[in-house]
Amino acid sequence: MSTTAQETPDNAIEIDDLRKVYAARGGEPEKEALKGVSLAIPRGSIFGLLGPNGAGKSTLINILAGLVNKTSGSVRIWGFDQDTNPRMSRASIGVVPQELHLDPFFTPREAMEIQAGLYGVKPADRRTESLLTALGLGDKMNVGARSLSGGMKRRLLIGKALAHSPPVLILDEPTAGVDIDLRRQLWDYVRELNAGGVTIILTTHYLEEAEEMCDRIAIINHGTVIADESKDALLGRLDRKTVTIVPVAPLSTVPQTLASQAAIETTITPDGALAITYSRREASLGTLLELTHSAGIEIRDVTTSEAGLEGVFLDMVSPT
Ligand code: ADP
Ligand code: MG
């Protein structure tokens, strides 16, 4: 195979201005699922694509996997352009789809062998048994896929995605419908793969999951990337909250009890209210109200803002 890309690119995946419009179907109007997404996924990272249901995560993953055709934009996988070098770009990723589709007539061993064959892995280079064993399916290699539990199917799909030893593994909602114990095993295995050099991309609609697993997180909502940064930076930002305290008598200066607090930022609004931005880890609304009260300020009203990311997150975490 001829390779034009460098052996180890800085970014495992580069996506530039990616758009996807699904055609109208059955009374449904056309749908713009991705509205110009650009992302660079660093080699060696565990990258989280976080967003509520319908945000466009699976659309993005399925375009990377070659299962959905993009409308416009460019995708490079391991340095290979998807349009000009489809074979190499495809060989560079393994994708675990969101849906648990498996042919019920094949055993895990057969499913793995067929997958390896599809990617041209020679029988001597196949890892069927070691992968199935590592995934805890050692004693299920020869049973029909029909008799596998949901968690086992998920693990078999991971095995299939790894059959050709790709440097990048993508998992679309890997823990949906997976119980706690298995989730832990799954994450341990994913961390092990990552420690062995595999770049991991996973999608989730749970902030906690992205927080636990990922070193970098992009948030996607309505087909648009609204954040893309290190986990620490993102959590720092999510932690900030603003409260506006409206006093009975308008203020002209910030009271000393509040101005002297290092952990908070205070300003006076044009109509004499007190706007306080604070970290939820470092201060509580109760403390702020006490400080205001102890400065002799009579409080008429208190409003908190959940704008931007926080608002998005509230949407996300609230059950749908
Ligand atoms: P997520 O994985 O983040 O939940 P999806 O990528 O599955 O989001 O969906 C994004 C949007 O595109 C949704 O509004 C969804 O209804 C729509 N969509 C997904 N697949 C199709 C399709 N095959 N045809 C038409 N619309 C689709
Ligand atoms: Mg999805």
Q: What does this protein structure show overall?
A:
It contains eleven helices and 14 strands. With 320 residues, it is of the alpha/beta class. The chain has two domains: 225 residues, P-loop containing nucleotide triphosphate hydrolases (Rossmann fold); 80 residues, Alpha-Beta Plaits (2-Layer Sandwich). The strands form three sheets. Strands 6-7-8-3-9-10 form a six-stranded mixed beta sheet, with helices on both faces. The chain has a four-stranded antiparallel beta sheet with strand order 2-1-4-5. A hairpin with a 2-residue loop joins strand 4 and strand 5. Helix 3 runs parallel beside helix 5. The longest helix has 16 residues. The relative contact order is 0.13. The N terminus is likely disordered. The chain binds adenosine-5'-diphosphate (ADP) and magnesium ion.
Short overview:
The protein is an alpha/beta fold and 320 residues long.
Outline: elongated
Number of domains: 2
Topology, number of strands: 14
Fraction in helix: 25-40%
Can you say what the CATH homologous superfamily of the largest domain is? P-loop containing nucleotide triphosphate hydrolases
Number of helices: 11
Give the topology string: H per helix, E per strand: EEEHEEHEHHHEHEHEEHEHEEHEH
Catalogue the unreliable spans: 1-5
* Biggest beta-sheet profile: 6 strands, mixed
Question: What's the level 1 CATH class of the largest domain?
Answer: Alpha Beta
Structural class comes to alpha/beta
Bound molecules: adenosine-5'-diphosphate, magnesium ion
Side by side, the strands of the main sheet go 6-7-8-3-9-10
Overall pLDDT: 89
The oligomeric state is single chain
CATH-level-2 architecture of the largest domain: 3-Layer(aba) Sandwich
CA radius of gyration is 25 Å
Tell me what portion of residues adopts beta-strand conformation: 25-35%
| First and last CA, distance | 48 Å
CATH topology of the largest domain, anyone? Rossmann fold
